[in-house]
Amino acid sequence: MGINFTYPLWLILIPLGLIYIFLTSKNLNRKGKTKKNVILFIRGIVIVLLVLAIAQTGITWNIKDISTIYLIDASDSIKDSFDTSEDFIKEAFGLMKDKDSAGVIIFGEDPVMESFLSKEPIFERISGGVEGKYTNIEKAITTGISVLPDKSKKRIVLITDGEENEGDSSKTAGVLKEQGIDLKVFKIDKDKGKELAVTNVTVPNSVNKGEEYNIIVNIKSNFDTNGRLVLFDGNERAAEEIITISKGENRFVFNDKSESTGFKIYKVVVEADQDKDSRNNEASAIINVLDEPRILLIEGASEEGEELSKMLNAFDVNYERLNAVSAPSSLQSLIQYKTVILANVSAEKLNSGFLSSLESYVKDFGGGLIAVGGDDSFALGGYYKTSLEKVLPVDMELKGKKAIPDMSIILVIDKSGSMSDGIGGISRIDLAKEAASRVLDSLRDQDSIGVLAFDNAMYWVVEPQKPGDREEIRNRIGSIRASGGTSILPPLKEAIKTSKGINKGIKHVILLTDGQAEKSGYDDVLADAEKLGITVSTVAVGHDADSNLLQYISQKANGRFYQTDEYSNLPTIFAKETFMAARAYLNNREFTPRIASFHPVISNVATKGLPNLLGYVAASPKDTARVLLESDEEDPILTLWQYGLGKTIAWNSDMAGKWSANYVNWENNLLLWSNIINWTIENYEDSELQVDTNLQGGFAFIDVKQINSSEEHDTKAIITSPSLKPLEINLDTEAPGQYRGSFKTDEIGSYLIKIVQSKGSEIKNTVGTGISIPYSPEYSIDAKSDRLDRLVLEGDGKYINSAKEVYEGNIADVSGRRDLTSILLLLAFIVFLIDIALRRLSLRFEKAAKRFKNVSNKVRIKRKEYKEKSKAKERASQDSYSEKTEDKKVAKDKEKEPKIVPEKKKNIKTLDTDTLLKRKRGK
Length: 923
Prior knowledge:
- The protein is of the alpha/beta class.
- The chain has six domains: 2-61 and 820-847; 64-191 and 784-813, von Willebrand factor, type A domain (Rossmann fold); 196-290, Immunoglobulin-like; 300-399 and 587-679, Rossmann fold (3-Layer(aba) Sandwich); 405-583, von Willebrand factor, type A domain (Rossmann fold, 3-Layer(aba) Sandwich), CATH 3.40.50.410; 689-779, Immunoglobulin-like (Sandwich), CATH 2.60.40.
- It is built from 21 helices and 45 strands.
- Strands 17-16-18-19-35-34-33-30 form an eight-stranded mixed sheet. Strands 5-4-3-6-7-44 form a six-stranded mixed sheet, with helices on both faces. Strands 25-24-21-26-27-28 form a six-stranded mixed sheet, with helices on both faces.
- Helix 13 links the parallel strand 26 and strand 27.
- The N and C termini lie far apart (113 Å).
- Mean pLDDT is 86; it is low at 904-908.
């Protein structure tokens, strides 16, 4: 234990302060010598206490406690060695001493506290819970240092394979040395086994359309083997080769020629026997194919896009014409087109990949979309609550004065045994249930739905109700099972009877069956339906259905009849019927479109008026959309808006000639559609931006530079991951005209990046680029541990081979310290108050001193007398003790003398006179 000063130089103030007190003591002479001396003494104490406080005086002692933090590498590269790490920890815990405490931190990309510091730590196994795609030893050591207590000797034990691929652990060496932390490293040498990996795929950054180029694949292996190398172009398998892989570096080349424009993403995958880890067997690359804008025309049925195709040929533009079922299924394949035209296309015919990519294609990558109407488009084509409705400038639900009244839909579904038939493992009953669910999705909250299932008998699967708990209703629909025969009349009567009691503006019944049933008895039921305003539509599934009967029912009940052999059409038919029931969507009548607002799209088009249209599909314009042409009932015919970076247009009539017959040969029709298409193609693509991307650990960094301007703009990056997840980040200004940002790369593959610069609400510049993310370096075949060697060397660490070595060697002493500053300040304050009291109070120090001296003398005399009395008592006590000792000695001597036994006296009995006389007489 000792005394410690944080700022010892301040101690020089003690003699200086005492000298100052002495030199300024003359004004105390009038207070008397004794009082002066007392005041000077007290002031000296105040000075000493204050200087000791300023110097931050403390009491120190050496601490014996030792705290040890075990850092366990739990990354993917070392997972096979978890048992070794766990056994090491358990053995080390068993060797702990009384003064030891320990804790455990597991780490991969980030550290996680597995066991807190304790003298009796608990550890069973590595529980996981860390991201193992990266190894960050630097962050683990920094965390370990932060949890080690100050009042303890410190030790860090690192258990790892040393393959650090994020951060730099050697940067912590200085902190370890500075804090005297004992570093021990238990390095696990793992067996990589037979391993090969794709190290990279190389392609040009950009090429022109039609240009040939090479795709170079580099593979590294630590053994000789045969394998299969597969090249993917987007999601399509483009090439496949059987290859021989030699130990060491291998190079393979594919040749390609791009016939399409935009970004192309390549991925290669290698397969080989005996390869231990397949996570490093793939890599990707991205290439930008440059050319003039390309248009994609998608038609819902044959000939629907014929007139549009003729116009595109007349414009001499590069376009491709596809049936809806062949629509692009990925964002990568979609963005090669500048604009997509849908010609009377039902959403049901478009694949899920197209629908899920559409919003990002328009919003983030500036793609254009033109939706052309027909009886299979917009609301009638199932656009409601899909990405199509989201990006288009019109809503499918009618609003305002054309809003649809509350609606009641009752679905009467045949569940007879024949409904279990199907194609491709999907039965008719399954598709019927999906169709019912589609109706449920199309209804508003104020509408009503009922589902009545029948065979020979019938029962309510869902009694008529508002679709509040849609999931519960969906589950009930899913419970329908096919069995039994077919009896249509009873369930049809029940549906119409139930509809009669429902208070809704529109009442509609949809009947679906695939069989034969009663031939008569329907007239009265259908007459009641017509009288009550209840409409009935029928769906005949397959050739066995009684088409004549079902068509008769629909005609008598003012509904529609559908005949289908393609069971997959059922969901589309049901969704379409839901909207058709309102009798407001399909408008088959002639009218003259009116100009609602002027715009460059229709400039110089309607100078001589517009031809009549013969029909359209009704919709509602969105709030920020711009209606250019409208019907005589103010329904939108031509509507446009900008959605994100892209532009979309809705033409609610058709272009196949059914409703647009007057437009096909109209002299300004080509001008109108040229304006429509060109408006969607226009964008802000600008070569004034230079974009660089690079990878650092698990992050991608984006650097943007303005080539000819230093004007500051709001700059952001819109990123689409390989799984089509959107991400938007703002780029920070690094210098005038230079911006930088980063994002976490959680997925392997190619990320598409769109840079957007804006000033206020006006978009100034955009440019597209991409970056390919390889597998994590955690799975690299060339992983190195040189940083670990530097850490051990520069941090005065030591490699160990057993748990026993953890406790060997000396650890830098750690001193405990109790700071006395506050105590010293308090004492100085108290003594200072005493000084004030002595100076302010009229105390007679001389008289008090004499009294004190007299009292002291008396005390001294009394103490002297007391001592003399004590000595006298002590002498008397010693004399008494001597006498007692002498008496005891005499007594002992007497005891030693021979004892004189006194002679025994004879026993002489004496008798009185009476006794003698009695004895004599007795004789």
